[in-house]
Amino acid sequence: MTVIALSGYYGFYNIGDEAILEAIVNVLRYHRPDIDLVVFSADPHHTRRTYGVEAVSRTNLPAIIRVLRRADLLISGGGGLLQDATGPRSIPYYLGIIKLAMLLHTKVAVYAQGLGPLNSGWSRFCVQKVLSGVDWLSVRDHASARLLAELGVKRDITVTADPVFYLDPVPRREVDTFWKAYGIKRPGKELLVGLALRPYPGETLFDKKLLEIVSDGCRFLEKEYNARLIFLPYHLKKDLPLARDLASRSSTGGIVIEESLSSRDILRVMGGLDLLIGMRLHSLIFASICGVPFIALPYDPKVNAFLQYVEKPGLSLESLNLVQLQESIKSALDEGEEAREYLRIKINAQKKEVQGAAQKILSLL
Length: 365
Prior knowledge:
Helix content: 40-55%
Number of helices: 14
Radius of gyration: 21 Å
Largest sheet: 7 strands, parallel
Strand content: 15-25%
Number of domains: 2
CATH class of the largest domain: Alpha Beta
CATH superfamily of the largest domain: Glycogen Phosphorylase B
Number of strands: 12
Structural class: alpha/beta
CATH architecture of the largest domain: 3-Layer(aba) Sandwich
């Protein structure tokens, strides 16, 4: 039996990373239903139950070694794993798993990763040294590829799509059933607007300014469009306090999704929205998949890379004001079918990229 190990930010109930895992599992099984998949997870029980895969604790070194000894391939990614902005542990952890696989003579595919920022010279040196020796190296945007070239990684680097583009919208009946649980029957007269915001990294004072502007924008939506606001924390620990704060400032309170949703549930949520205001990259990808107009508030280069691909503007957080937000709301809600069809074409192209990357990974076996 062929065994593939998967290493990423899995089991932390971050919707974006869980969607990455689900998409990778789905596309690999589509091409090779016979493979055994083993995930290194922060919550192995949840991962096993949710995706029907084998899972071990991502901090249980003896278990990881046992998995890598019998694995034919390690897939590292996708997501923004190799960066040192959120703390000093990500780089040594993910590179350590890769290096351990190499020492055990297990092939390694680095898949659709978003590299950086890499602020320390030590981080840059380690990334260059380890990634130069993997069997297949791919990133999800051209900025990451340029960073690897700057680091001196002299080998083929493939730019491919984020795996989440492989997911499909859900049927309308599933959307309606989901929203009925929240007392909303679709279609209705009220406009449903989702907000997927996160704290701005390391900027407490800036968060307060942004909160005021978005709060005013929410009240504008409620007054001018009879909007019902849906607050979507993509990472409960980080995003839920912000979602609750925003909800408390709105005229109606809206709905705060306070549970960890599966990728399919997020697709059910998105399928019922008329507009999304999002900072989180995967909230924008989910909106695109479901054909929902969106307003992007990019906080990270990975969001700008996505916006560049779909040829849509984002609002600068540094210069954001209420007038800009109001104009963007009006513009997004006025989008015609031509704009949505163009977006569908771009999304379908990304889905084909995911298929091609999966075939390339499996060819390593």
